[in-house]
Design brief:
Four Helix Bundle (Hemerythrin (Met), subunit A); about 0% strand; mainly alpha; flat; about 70% helix
Length: about 180
């Protein structure tokens, strides 16, 4: 068995264990722990490392599409800063907020950080660097969606009816 195939076979269980640990931390501690963050980081990075090892990089020649991709990356990066600044000036991810944040970018999406980071990665993929960039983009969206489902469960438990109303009135991502 080739090392690339072995990595591909081992990747899904490692991702699953990482996500389950992250979810268990949320349920047990009502916030994420360093171990949970480490587990979900490994879960996110493992498929990228596997695919990078298993498949050669294919570089597409420079063109106008690279400019389009770079523009989308810049918009995504700038967009990442708006929700982070609005959410809290002095709090780190995983710390509890005293109230549900529903203004600013959170009026348009319940998860604006994930949406804008997706745009950043999509811009990179559009630049045509590698097939791996497109695979990483899809894997990012899958892992992010699973994390969002865990976070929604936590927020509903923490904020109750206020979150259910917000959930009903505001799309999870951008338009859905």
């Amino acid at each position: 068995m080739s090392p690339g195939l072995l990595y591909l076979l081992l990747s899904p269980p490692i991702v699953a264990v990482g996500l389950l640990k992250y979810r268990a931390d949320y349920r047990r501690h009502q916030h994420t722990t360093w171990l949970g963050l480490g587990a979900v980081t490994v879960a996110f990075l493992m498929p990228h490392m596997v695919l990078n090892y298993a498949f050669p990089m294919v570089v597409v020649p420079r063109s106008t599409i690279e400019t389009v991709g770079m523009s989308i990356m810049a918009l995504g990066l700038a967009g990442c800063l708006w929700p982070l600044r609005h959410f809290s000036k002095n709090m780190w991810t995983g710390m509890e907020q005293p109230h549900l944040v529903t203004s600013g970018p959170y009026r348009y999406s319940r998860n604006p950080q994930y949406v804008t980071y997706f745009f950043f990665l999509a811009g990179y993929a559009i630049m045509g660097r590698t097939i791996l960039a497109w695979v990483a983009l899809v894997l990012y969206w899958i892992v992010t969606h699973l994390i969002v489902l865990i976070e929604e469960e936590h927020l509903e438990r923490r904020f109750g009816d206020a979150y259910r109303t917000y959930k009903r009135d505001t799309p999870r991502y951008l338009f859905w």
